[in-house]
Amino acid sequence: MALDDQKPSGFKFVGTSPDRPDGLDKVTGRARFGADAYAPGMLHGAVVRSPHAHARIVRIDTSKAEALEGVKAVVTRADFVDGLQGEFGFVLENVMAGEKALYDGHAVAAVAASSQLIARDAVKLVEVEYEVLPHVTDVDAAMAENAPVLNDSYADASVPAGHHPNVVRYHDSGHGDVDAGFAEADLVIEDSFKTEATHQGYIEPHACLASLGGDGKGELWCTTQGHWIAQKTCAALVGIDTSQLRVTASEIGGGFGGKTTVFIEPVALALSRKANRPVKIVMTRSEVFRATGPTSSTSMDIKIGMKKDGTITAAQGIFRLQGGAFPGAPMEFSAMCAFAPYSLTNVHQVGYDVISNRPKQAAYRAPGAPMASFAVESVIDELCSQLDLDPIDVRLKNASREGTKASYGPKFERIGLVETLEAAKAHPHYSAPLEPGQGRGISCGFWFNHGGETSVSLALSEDGTCQISVGTPDIGGSRASMALMAAEELGIPYENIRVTIADTATLGYNDVSHGSRVTYASGLATIKAAKDAVGKLCKRAAAKWGIPEDAVYWEDGCAKPSGANAGNFDPMPLAKITKSMGRSGGPISGHFEATPEGAGVSFGTHIVDAEVDPETGKTAVVRYTVIQDAGKAIHPSYVEGQFQGGAAQGIGWALNEEYIYGEDGRLQNSIFLDYRVPVASDLPMIDTVIVEVPNPGHPYGVRGVGETGIVPPLAAIANAVSAAAGVRLRHLPMSPPRILRALKDKG
Amino acid sequence: MKKIHVTTTVNNDNVEFLCDPRETLLDVLRDRLNLTGAKEGCGTGDCGACSVTVDGRLVCSCLVLGAEAEGKKIATVEGIAKGEELHPLQHKFIEYAALQCGICTPGILVAAKSLLEKNPDPTETEVRYWLAGNLCRCTGYDKIIRAVMDTAADMREAS
Amino acid sequence: MVKVHLWSGLRTLTGGLECVEVEASTTGQLLAALSLSYPELEPVIESGVSIAIDGRIIATSLTEPVSAENEIFLMQRLKGG
């Protein structure tokens, strides 16, 4: 999209923060989430899961479960499509194990019964005979020569010869000559880092209600970030035509990337088909932890050279990501995002995608980027500290700008990194005095953002109000943003617009609510759909006035003649045109379908103060500031909310959250008591600064804001904790035992 | 298993139900009484999404058995608004954008209301510790805390 | 002819070349031409790639125009969380 298509300024609605359209439903308990649906004749499903990290499934005997009164169906892998290849094949293998159980919690069978309690009883009656196999859950161990092999056919052609079959994909990119660059440096630091797997931790467990008949026609209600991907995937897994499955997205209780795929949905459909009744499945929290989307755990080596004046001469990173039992760990994003904030002549990054006996990783907010940023920004912090340089000055000196050749290859378009760094330097937080025992850390972060397939439909009503159907589930207030953008184009009040998340039967394909794409892509499509409707409104006015169509323009909610030559007519308001639309050419609606390709990358800079208790090793985050480029904030309150939420999740990742596996390969902390996400008393207020450097790829300049906010916190907190503790922390999370060990080792 | 007959009060309505001895109060509210405002986020009392009050005491309804509701007064998120009129906390949560996905909101509102009834003038720290049993994964709590503090201030002024 | 910069990991599939030239006027033609000239790239392209044109990242579209004046980079397919 060309810049001249952009609205320069003078917004009337955009940039204000009105009440969200679904606010009342959400504060009264009326909003219907995944588990809030019921159907006549409904059965309850429950899943049988492997207690072993790696085991051959010798035999499954379902007869005792089937004999239990109230049990209506039992399914195993045999009830799904055979021979699926590619990503659908991996998803099916993850949804229901075939020959082998590949991790603790892997589904091996499922039952449907007349009550939840009976279904759970029946699960215990399904007899599964396992031949337990050696397992591996650590990324470095999984790459080692004698590591157990999970599957010797997963590695693709990118993997160089000589690697263990658990290394399934390989990435190598960069430019310049890093060895020559390191030779130019006054100081070179090389360090290794590890991060543990975390979970997206959405408070709403996966839930669905499925109905599928023997005629291959089905209905599915589920909590998902993308109901079209659910439709496509479920249809493939249970062997029906995509269009015969209608999927409705419930209100979604958080996703963060973890609800971009399916788990129980195809299982509920298979059970429903077999029982010929609707089946509802709701995961327990323990199932969510054991069997759904954690992040990768990582092992990383970083080497960076710097001159005394702060110039980075070369940078190199090796990123090993364990992504569970299937290919797909986002190591290429770790590699491509790691050094993106910096203008580098010599840079080299390598990534390894490694499989292990853990659940299949799922996307989590800027997948792959936070870990890489932690390692890289820690080394830069150490260089600044040893060379006695200001960490913001050094970052400004090396910052990527418009025209900089990115570490991942192409030149940057207009970007806002420098603006975030300058805002950080000017922020009172950066110059505020620290108390004894406290340390301050800063970090930059980068994320690509995404466009994706998008359809929006907009219809005007006779009374001059407007209804909009979008296909991207509203996770954080996006209905408000869509209504603001439509109000801006149509010139009618925000309150006169209702935005609905349409089901798969009523709108064309929409990509998932991921990649920070909703306000960008659905917003762009909403603007274009509104423009489409405005064109039709102008045409009706022109016909009424008897003047040419192009002699009419739209302003402030009215059609107006474009000048004295066009004729002298009073402005015609939208409601006046719609009142008689049925008799003047038919209903007026607007549509837009496209895959917009101009998401615009985004940068942020975070400042954090941390205090470490040397006796207990506990860290308190005492002050936090997020500065991020939003391009253009449509609804500033919800932009701030995205910044604050990203920071809070990053704080959890940095300090507490981790998947802990025992020697037996079983997950040891599968409830919220033991997997500790930040609670209200753990956090300070989180200050925000919205920087607006317009994205040339959006009519209003919007850049996605959802993901970038989780990229800087890991490093910013590690830098603050390292300063406070007087020792560099290289392993996340920096839980009290790890900090105490580091303090002890320091002596 | 033989079901138990329970007579209780929910949001000032007299209700009766039959439940399995193993069913929780949360199961009963959601599956038998069609009150799905309370959410199950964990089932182990760690997330607070199922918060309700029993005889005025804030509890996780996933840790209370349905049968224990006998003779008690239960209050849920559905009872916070009086008819059309929202509670000041509900207004402020919308105004402050104190929710993103909204799954934790019912539990947080029940908990916050319970706090303000006990302590009309809480400090930020007191609000944070009172709500420490209610997980929110979207907001980082900032806007939630501000909404509760500001509601408390408004309610003090109005009283 | 348009010049296409590859990420360095693809060198082994192009006989050591990190920048190749193909005849194409759209992103779709570009990918087809790459697969034709360098058959070993085909599985990589099939599994999903994005293309940066003068810094603007084209995640999936096959219809974006490309010309000899553009700076073109092949990238691994972008997705989000």
Walk me through the structure.
The complex is a heterotrimer of chains A (about 750), B (about 160) and C (about 80). In chain A, strand 20 (about 550-555) and strand 21 (about 560) form a beta hairpin. Chain A has about 750 residues and is an alpha+beta fold. In chain A, the strands form six sheets. In chain A, strands 3-5-1-12-9-10-11 form a seven-stranded mixed sheet, with helices on both faces. A six-stranded mixed sheet of chain A has the order 7-15-14-13-8-27, with helices on both faces. Helices cover about 30% and strands about 25% of the residues of chain A. Chain A contains 20 helices and 27 strands. In chain A, helix 11 runs parallel beside helix 19 (about 715-725). Chain B has two domains: about 5-80, Beta-grasp domain (Ubiquitin-like (UB roll), Roll), CATH 3.10.20; about 90-160, DNA polymerase, domain 1 (Orthogonal Bundle). Chain B has five helices and five strands. In chain B, helix 2 crosses helix 5. The radius of gyration of chain B is 16 Å and the shape is globular. The termini of chain B are far apart. A five-stranded mixed sheet of chain C has the order 2-1-5-3-4. By secondary structure, chain C is an alpha+beta fold. Chain C contains two helices and five strands, in the order E-E-H-H-E-E-E. Chain C is globular, with a radius of gyration of 11 Å. Chain C has a single domain (about 1-75), classed as Ubiquitin-like (UB roll) (Roll). In chain C, strand 3 and strand 4 (about 55-60) form a beta hairpin. Chains in contact: A-B, A-C. At the A-B interface, helix 1 and helix 18 of A face helix 1, helix 2, helix 3, helix 4 and helix 5 of B.
Considering the chains and any ligands shown, give keywords for the structure.
heterotrimer; A: 747 residues; alpha+beta; Aldehyde Oxidoreductase, domain 4; seven-stranded mixed beta sheet; C: 81 residues; Ubiquitin-like (UB roll); 2 helices; 5 strands; globular; oxidoreductase (chain B); 2Fe-2S (chain B); metal ion binding (chain B); oxidoreductase activity (chain B); iron (chain B)
What topology emerges from the helices and strands here?
The complex is a heterotrimer of chains A (747), B (159) and C (81).
Chain A: H1 23-28, E1 43-49, E2 55-61, H2 63-67, E3 71-75, H3 86-95, E4 100-101, E5 107-113, H4 116-125, E6 127-132, H5 139-143, E7 167-175, H6 178-184, E8 187-195, E9 207-212, E10 218-222, H7 227-238, E11 245-249, H8 265-275, E12 279-282, H9 285-291, E13 297-306, E14 312-322, H10 331-338, E15 347-354, H11 369-387, H12 391-398, H13 417-426, H14 428-431, E16 438-447, E17 454-460, E18 466-470, H15 478-490, E19 497-501, H16 518-545, E20 552-555, E21 558-561, E22 572-573, H17 574-579, E23 589-594, E24 602-612, E25 619-629, H18 636-655, E26 686-691, H19 713-725, E27 731-732, H20 736-746
Parallel strand pairs in A: 1-12, 8-27, 10-11, 14-15, 18-19, 25-26
Antiparallel strand pairs in A: 1-5, 2-4, 2-6, 3-5, 7-15, 8-13, 9-10, 9-12, 13-14, 16-24, 17-18, 17-23, 20-21, 21-22, 24-25
Chain B: E1 4-10, E2 13-19, H1 25-32, E3 51-54, E4 57-60, E5 73-75, H2 88-95, H3 105-118, H4 124-130, H5 142-158
Parallel strand pairs in B: 1-5
Antiparallel strand pairs in B: 1-2, 3-4, 3-5
Chain C: E1 2-5, E2 19-22, H1 27-37, H2 42-46, E3 49-53, E4 56-58, E5 72-76
Parallel strand pairs in C: 1-5
Antiparallel strand pairs in C: 1-2, 3-4, 3-5
